[in-house]
Design a protein that fits this description.
- It comes from Eremococcus coleocola ACS-139-V-Col8.
- By secondary structure, this protein is of the alpha+beta class.
- It contains eight helices and 18 strands.
- The protein has two domains: about 220 residues, P-loop containing nucleotide triphosphate hydrolases (Rossmann fold), CATH 3.40.50.300; about 80 residues, Nucleic acid-binding proteins (OB fold (Dihydrolipoamide Acetyltransferase, E2P)).
- Strands 7-8-9-3-10-11 form a six-stranded mixed sheet, sandwiched between helices. It has a five-stranded antiparallel sheet with strand order 2-1-4-5-6, covered by helices on one side. It has a four-stranded antiparallel sheet with strand order 16-15-14-17, with no helix packed on it.
- Strand 12 and strand 13 form a beta hairpin.
- The longest helix has 18 residues.
Length: about 325
């Protein structure tokens, strides 16, 4: 399902949370809304879901208009055919895993082949053998998988994820990122994922909308957002940016300690070195700016080093 947004806006009192926005979310792809708290990403997700009413604009699911202020159309959430996965797992503690997953089907009286569909959904998240257990008998990662199964059992055209991994510890969060991405690929379903975690966004997304102050600053592939940020807001929020001046930057992995012909040459002073296992992350001072680069060896505090950058590795914004 393709989601098309035209001229969408939303204010709370005098605060315009979403400024007029046009956007197309591609079918069978995972699109992430990325940005800091208060940037409008969750409000945008809630408007797509029908949980928040926009002030102006239109929302189309394929060719079907689900919201239009001008035409007086506002399809309720339960009729939009969407699956939801939230930060808190929101599982019923007194129900078995089977009944938790079946809840949406029973609530909408969509009970044809219910047992088959629930077991298929549980199998898709590798929990088919835990159908008779209760939420408190599962780990955090398993509970999150139950919420995934509950979202897909209704066979939605799109699943909305609102920071679903933020309640998990770091190791489990990384594991669940892999599983979530594999699930989306397997189902070939449209997904919209909200997060403030840039690593999370870069690792799972087909496209990312970087949001700030109610605007989409850049909407592109993870690679393009990292390698060719359109402005300072995007460059500073996604990845580590080493600023040469107000309009030129490079990324830590692009600097070399040994130069080639035509490389630009810089000298910088070492602030500190952090051992990362395979290499060191070195913090430098260059003309009042703090830079970060990688080195195969530890560099000493106050040591002055030579850095080299190929011209194609210097990004202008």
């Amino acid at each position: 399902m393709q989601i098309r947004i035209q001229g969408l806006s939303k204010s709370f009192g005098q605060n315009q949370v979403i400024k007029p926005l046009d956007m197309v979310i591609e079918s069978s792809r995972l699109t992430t809304l990325l940005g800091p708290s208060g940037c409008g990403k969750t409000t945008l997700l809630r408007m797509i879901a029908g949980l928040e009413r926009p002030d102006q604009g239109q929302i189309f699911f394929d060719d079907v208009c689900v919201f239009s202020e001008e035409k007086g159309i506002n399809l309720p959430p339960e009729k939009r055919g969407l699956g939801f996965v939230f930060q808190d797992f929101a599982l019923w503690p007194h129900m078995t895993i089977f009944e938790n997953v079946a809840f949406g089907l029973r609530a909408t009286k969509n009970t044809t082949r219910l047992e088959e569909r629930v077991h298929k959904a549980l199998a898709s998240v590798q929990l088919e053998k835990m159908a008779d257990r209760y939420p408190h008998q599962l780990s955090g990662g398993q509970q999150q998988r139950v919420s995934f199964a509950r979202a897909i059992v209704i066979e939605p055209a799109c699943i909305l994820f609102d920071e679903p991994l933020s309640a998990l510890d770091a190791i489990l969060r990384e594991q669940m990122r892999v599983e979530l991405r594999a699930l989306i690929d397997r189902l070939q379903i449209t997904a919209i994922f909200v997060t403030h975690d840039q690593t999370e966004a870069m690792s799972i997304s087909d496209k990312i909308a970087v949001m700030s102050q109610g605007l989409v600053q850049q909407y592109d592939s993870p690679e393009n957002i990292y390698q060719a940020p359109v402005n300072q807001t995007v460059a500073n929020f996604v990845g580590t940016s080493n600023w040469i001046d107000d309009h030129h930057l490079f990324r830590p992995e692009q600097a070399q300690l040994v130069g080639q012909a035509n490389d630009q040459h810089f000298q910088a002073k070492v602030i500190s070195s952090e051992f990362l296992g395979q290499n060191y992350l070195v913090h430098l001072e260059y003309q009042g700016q703090e830079w970060s680069v990688y080195s195969p060896i530890r560099l000493n505090h106050d040591q002055v080093i030579d850095l080299y950058l190929a011209p194609q590795h210097i990004t202008q914004v």
